[in-house]
Design brief:
The chain has 417 residues and is an alpha/beta fold. Helix content is 25%, strand content 15%. It contains 12 helices and 12 strands. Strands 3-4-5-6-9-10-11-12 form an 8-stranded parallel β-barrel. Helix 6 packs parallel to helix 7.
Length: 417
């Protein structure tokens, strides 16, 4: 979730430690960063499920990136027709988010909310996150893969890079507690185990950012901190290419979504520099994410809100483009894997009017005629007024709209349009 004020100026080109340029051998148990557990590399492969007749996955099959009638790349069904996924994101599983990750609630999201996708946010090192709790993968991810399959809805598995914001950080790639290359191990496990699941998508890194301290070297006196800027070319693209090499070795055509710089607010940095394989060939079925919170990221108006982007017209960049940036929805396949109806802090300023303007753009009112898929933050009571729920009880059947916040009611209504 976005929690800091950012700028759209280009970040400086601070160098990453040499180890971040190492090669990754997907057949090895040790990468040039850290280790991969043999249990992950040899995990049992789940069989292909039978999806409910008439469900989204039954209708659309395994998704791919193809072109729409305007020749613009976008998310499409197995037979090449543009589709729009709309649903919710979990909050952090180490916080209140876990209470709502249940089989019953996936049924409620599909049948009552009309959602066709759920996103699970795997925070890594924050306060008892994935690095410290195997339940995040062995219980929640495995459970959600099965529960969403039973509903015929899609599941986006999100490697929730947030703090530190560099996906090449040792906290993700050679954790001080275990020496494990957590990212490589995680995607090895998932790509192998879920390779026969038509409903899975991957988000390779949530919100790369360059304002958090890095944690790359360890000694007896504790971490050695430094503060590079995290860029697409030096940090994010190499991470995505390494994770794609792993994923494609098990699942050659699953849709993967790359995070973009500055809390996933600069997809334009990708233009002309899309990830390639070891032969220099561009990867297919690849998308790029944009995150926004409507009260902060809009048409640049001077609204009083905690996190301000006055005079930065995000909407124009996506709808039509500007002098320096081409229309992003005509140039790149975009998936809004996280967005909120509020200020970027999440805590203030519910703005359905500005949210409506974004929904109009994402429903195809843009120069690329691209319909954009999205997941709303969040299916939880945590994090302020952007939360969709008033409380977390672990179950919401039979469904009662009284559980919804104002933001939750707005999203519920959007999902029924």
């Amino acid at each position: 979730m976005t929690t800091a004020a950012l700028t759209l100026t280009a970040c400086d080109n601070a160098k990453q430690p040499q180890q971040s340029n190492g090669e990754l051998d997907v057949n090895a148990s040790v990468t040039s960063f850290g280790t991969i557990d043999s249990a992950s590399a040899n995990v049992e492969i789940l069989p292909t499920p039978t999806y409910p007749k008439g469900s989204p996955v039954d209708q659309w099959g395994k998704l791919k990136v193809d072109t729409n009638a305007a020749g613009v790349r976008c998310l499409c069904s197995a037979d090449g027709k543009p589709v729009q996924l709309r649903g919710m994101s979990s909050h952090g599983l180490q916080w209140k988010g876990a209470a709502n990750v249940t089989e019953a609630n996936m049924a409620a999201l599909r049948k009552d909310w009309n959602a066709n996708i759920f996103r699970i946010a795997i925070y890594v090192d924050e306060e008892g996150g994935y690095a410290y709790n195997s339940n995040h993968r062995d219980v929640y991810v495995d459970g959600l893969v099965k529960w969403t399959a039973a509903q015929g809805m899609y599941l986006l598995i999100d490697w929730h890079v947030l703090s530190p914001g560099n996906p090449m950080s040792a906290l993700y790639r050679k954790h001080p507690r275990t020496g494990k290359d957590l990212a490589a191990d995680f995607f090895t496990y998932c790509a192998r185990r879920y390779q026969n699941q038509k409903h899975i998508l991957y988000e390779l890194c949530n919100e790369p950012n360059g304002l958090n301290f890095e944690n790359e070297k360890y000694n007896d006196n504790g971490p050695k901190y430094w503060n590079p800027r995290v860029t697409w070319l030096e940090h994010i693209k190499p991470h995505c290419e390494q994770m794609l090499k792993i994923i494609r070795s098990y699942d050659k055509d699953v849709v993967c979504i790359c995070g973009t710089p500055h809390w996933s607010q600069r997809p334009q940095d990708v233009i002309g520099h899309e990830p390639v394989d070891e032969k220099g060939q561009a990867y297919n079925n690849l998308m790029y994410t944009f995150h926004f919170y409507a009260a902060s990221h809009n048409d640049g108006r001077h609204d009083e809100t905690a996190v301000k982007f006055w005079d930065i017209d995000f909407m124009k960049i996506f709808k039509n483009g500007c002098d320096t940036i081409p229309c992003l929805l005509k140039t790149l396949p975009i998936f809004v894997t996280e967005w909120g109806t509020t200020d970027a802090s999440g805590w203030t300023n519910f703005r359905p009017d500005l949210s409506d303007m974004w929904m109009d753009i994402f429903n195809g009112n843009n120069d690329g005629k691209q319909v954009v898929s999205w997941c709303n933050w969040s299916f939880s009571s945590d994090g302020g007024v952007c939360a969709a729920l008033k409380w977390d009880d672990g179950n919401m059947q039979p469904f009662d709209k009284s559980i919804l916040t104002e933001s939750g009611k707005y999203i519920f209504d959007q999902l029924h349009k």
